[in-house]
Amino acid sequence: MQLEPVTDLPEIRPGDDLAALVADRATLEPGDVLTVASTVVSKAEGRTANLAEYPVSGRARELADRIGAVTGEEKDPRFAQAVLEESTELLIECPFMLTETHFGHICVNAGIDRSNVPGHDLLLLPRRPTESAERIRAGLEEHGLEDVAVIVTDTCGRPFRHGQRGVAIGWAGIAASRDWRGEPDRDGRELGVTVQSVVDELAAAANLVTGEGADGVPAVAIRDWEFGDLPESDELFRPVEDDLIRQALRQWAFE
Ligand code: GDP
Ligand code: MN
Ligand code: MN
Ligand code: MN
Q1: Ligand 1, closest atom to CA 212?
Q2: Ligand nearest to the CA of 108
Q3: What is the ipTM of this complex?
Q4: Which of 18, 70, 72, 175 has its CA 20 to 30 A from that of 9?
Q5: Ligand 1: which of 7, 34, 40 to mutate, most ligand atoms within 8 Å of CB?
Q6: CB–CB of 181/141 below 8 Å?
């Protein structure tokens, strides 16, 4: 597998055609994967926002006050309001807001970003990242780059471990997971539970190339990688019925 940064991309503005910008700068063969940081997808989709656009509700004020009191760091209630508007549920309210976004991704602060957003206070995640990925994939095809899978990524924390890493929040032209169940291990023992989250693993690898700061590399071409002859699945976000951790959090919240 090879990962190659797509270099020389400009600062992305609302309305920019990401597929065209990438097609001018990268050679992509059928079967390659292009990862694109959600930051630039959001910028192209005009998902910047300013704190002044969020009139504060009673709930947002209460959350900001509680978080401020517990952490000792003042929390802007307008930011809490923005997080509430980008979420369908708060899994944890305090000392940080763990949210489910409208498209089903669970992350802190609804993934609202305050880094790499010149001229605005906030950058919201793309409204529907899978549709964004589909659009970029179709755009690449229009520019003669056929059958390139596209993964929209974000940097995200995780429970139990320090540090953040790349995850997939939308994808097109590739299945989310490959299913190893029923395959033998080296001793011939059948694998019983392993479903490999391919899009997350590719997103994490690509994040090593993009970095998190001022590098200016929001897109990565992944070549010579094969999905293999295994069953696929498009499930990534666990529904609550199937998620013991979320169920435990709900119980904890109401105790
Ligand atoms: P996120 O993980 O989606 O939140 O994106 P990051 O803020 O971590 O940025 C990922 C990469 O994209 C970094 O190398 C940034 O420097 C780069 N980046 C962010 N915005 C732009 C942009 O508008 N143009 C270019 N060329 N690079 C950008
Ligand atoms: Mn960012
Ligand atoms: Mn981000
Ligand atoms: Mn990042």
Answers
A1: 8
A2: 3
A3: 0.98
A4: 175
A5: 40
A6: no
